[in-house]
Amino acid sequence: GTEVGISTSSKEPVMKLHGLMRNLFGNAESLHAQISGGHSQKGSLSLTFTKPKVFTPRLPHSPPTGTFEAAANYDGGTVRDGNFMEKSSGLSLRLRSDDSRHQLGYQYTWRESAPTGKSTNNSVLESTKPTVKSSLQYTFTHDETDHPMVPTRGLFAKCVMEAAGLGGDVAFGKIEAHARAYYELAEHVSLGVGCFGGALVPTDIETMKAFSAKSEMTDRFFLKGMRDLRLRGLSSLGPCDEGDAIGGDAYFTLGASLSYSPPVNVLRQNGIRVHAFANGGSMALLSDGKGRMEDKVSKLVSLEELKMSAGVGVVAPTPVGRFEINLVSPLDGSNTFKGQLVWAMDTEYS
């Protein structure tokens, strides 16, 4: 069968037109095509072929397992953090276990960055040369929460590891981990705690010596969405050049929230909850060639660099992601409330 639909992104105003062809060759294969564009995205096109049950176990009477995916992608330009636009095109191959806990992939991608009209700082201008990334990636996911967007109990963990330098002209090792835990303290009352962390180790493509080359801006971490401080102006958390975020090679964020389901039938039936939360985090650029590595790592984990925020709000699950509207203030030691009314949609949060 064939399906055609229109959807919106969970992170920003992006319109997506997609089509799906099922059972192409009679063995549950599918072909998915998607065209998207929006305020910060000039336009992108992706084509993904999926074939399930690609491995036949040696044990007799055992059903085939595993899913294979091959994808081709083109992105005509996506604005990253307001100060540079990234264009890319490439191919990817993925093998995924039936329970989606394990995924092994290969990616070959051409990338090019260009400053937007808002930014002319040196860091962005230095990153405009085209690069080719050839990398292997492994993803592990463990999810035993009771709801995908508004959980009240259970554990979630995810780890993504990537090694680039198998061809191409950039080389690095990269890891990012994410964990959340939820505890039901009483009926309709739940405590959630979460943490994110990541590290990027750029290497010279010829010598493969760690931190002997500066990381590419397109490979760095950028803080975004509900998983960080739930504040506008996230460039204040992490390295900046003339006020623009330039990303980091290492970061961590922590979060805790106490949520309650109000005694109103229509709210409880739709999973809508109120919550109070606190978030904090720090980020550092380790490969800029300035200062000692030990000092940079020490500064990353010090209370001096830790940025924090706290607030209250409303949480609701929607078909395109988790929706929040919050009254939130930075905790900067000034003893002055600097509230922001912030709404956001996302699929990753703490």
Question: What can you see in these coordinates?
Answer:
There is one protein chain. The chain has 350 residues and is mainly beta. The protein is built from three helices and 18 strands. The chain has helices at 122-126, 265-269, 293-300; strands spanning 2-8, 14-22, 30-38, 41-55, 65-80, 84-96, 102-115, 131-143, 154-164, 171-186, 189-203, 240-241, 244-245, 250-260, 273-284, 307-318, 321-330, 340-346. The chain starts with a strand and ends with a strand.
Topology at a glance:
Blueprint: E1 2-8, E2 14-22, E3 30-38, E4 41-55, E5 65-80, E6 84-96, E7 102-115, H1 122-126, E8 131-143, E9 154-164, E10 171-186, E11 189-203, E12 240-241, E13 244-245, E14 250-260, H2 265-269, E15 273-284, H3 293-300, E16 307-318, E17 321-330, E18 340-346
Antiparallel strand pairs: 1-2, 2-3, 3-4, 4-5, 5-6, 6-7, 7-8, 8-9, 9-10, 10-11, 11-14, 12-13, 14-15, 15-16, 16-17, 17-18
Report the C-alpha radius of gyration, rounded: 22 Å
Number of strands: 18
Straight-line distance between termini: 39 Å
Strand coverage percent: over 45%
Number of separate helices: 3
Share of helical residues:
under 10%
Give the averaged pLDDT, no decimals: 84
The sequence of SSEs as H and E is EEEEEEEHEEEEEEEHEHEEE
What class do helices, strands and sheet pairing give? mainly beta
Q: What does the main sheet amount to?
A: 16 strands, antiparallel
Given the C-alpha coordinates, what overall shape results?
Answer: globular
Strand arrangement across the biggest beta sheet: 1-2-3-4-5-6-7-8-9-10-11-14-15-16-17-18
Low-confidence spans: pLDDT under 50, at least 5 residues? Answer: 5-11
